[in-house]
Amino acid sequence: MPDVEIVLHRIPTPDCKPYLIVAGRDGNLWFCENGASKIGRLNPNDRSFAEFPTPTPNSRPVGIAPGGDGALWFCENAANRIGRITPSGEITEFPVPTPNAGPDGIVCGPDGNIWFSEAHASQIGRITAAGAITEFSAGLTPTCRPLSVVVRDGDVWFSEYAASQIGRITMDGAITEYKIPTPDCEPRAMAAHPDGSIWFVETKGNALGRIDARARITEFPIPTPNASLRGVAVAADGDLWFTENFSDKVGRMAPDGKLIREYTFPIEGCGARAITALPDGRLFFSAHDIGAIGEVIPRR
Predict the structure, then answer these.
(1) What strand order describes the sheet that includes 155-160?
(2) Quick one: which of 219, 181, 215 has its CA closest to 197?
């Protein structure tokens, strides 16, 4: 018998295409509905949903992250705006200065500001609580297409999907880039580990990557071919969990790179994207293609 149970919770809006999902400071799970242009909220205890349309139609939100102010901040990829939603569902939007910048990944920085990637413009943006936006491009590989962003060592780190690199930006805007050994590996989602490393998925490279505290990169191939890794999260015990979009699986890897197991979803064609972990051991992932939130429950 598998040591986990995987269940799917259908989102009320059909074909909503959930994308990034995170745990909010209010104890709920928050996610972007890319197909419905809504922000969704899931109570992890009673599994009840709430949905909040963005003020701008067809905004196609992608990334979302808790801010230091108690609200959630998110990227409206098609509307070229950064959104802010309170726990009660009140939304404010801020336009990004560069046209068609394609804001994607987002995180609360060490300085208390919100940092985000501009995938189409190949820039990194920063927005204050008051809505003032600064953009950084000096030192970035042109057309690198930054996606996921995380925080480590007082800096913001990001994946460069089109350049097969990991980038780092200081709070004053200085950028450094680190080449991944496998070319054209398409790094996407990232997760910071308590041991000081950052883990990331290589969608085309079919591997998990790790960049340690000394900026050394190690890659760990996944046995399932063409799995199309999309999301990664660090569980409470330090293990890495990742989604396999094409193979309809979720995988588990130890921090030393040893693959523990892959688990098959109960429904084919889930189109799993992002994954996040709760302190109690449960994990939740976005089943993009079937309009659901998946839950991975460890068996006791």
Answers:
(1) 146-152, 155-160, 165-169, 175-179
(2) 215
CATH of the domain at 211: 2.130.10.10
Per-residue pLDDT reduced to its tens digit, 129-181 = 999 999 999 999 999 999 999 999 999 999 999 999 999 999 999 999 999 99
Q: How far apart are CA 155 and CA 170, in angstroms?
A: 5
Closest Cα partner for 94 from 109, 84, 85, 86?
A: 84
Tens of pLDDT, residue by residue over 246-295, are 999 999 999 999 999 999 999 999 999 999 999 999 999 999 999 999 99
Q: Return the ∠ at Cα 162 (arms to 158 and 167), rounded to 5°.
A: 25
* pTM of this structure: 0.97
Which of 76, 285, 105 lies closest to 189 in space, CA to CA? 105
Total structural domains within the chain: 1
What range does the domain containing 165 cover?
4-298
Task: Give the other-Cβ count within 10 Å of 218's Cβ.
Answer: 13
Beta bridge partners of 250: 243, 263
Nearby residues of 82 by Cβ (< 8 Å), 6 or more positions away: 73, 74, 75, 76, 93, 94, 96, 103, 106, 114, 116, 125, 127, 133
Q: Are the C-beta atoms of 251 and 4 separated by less than 8 Å?
A: no
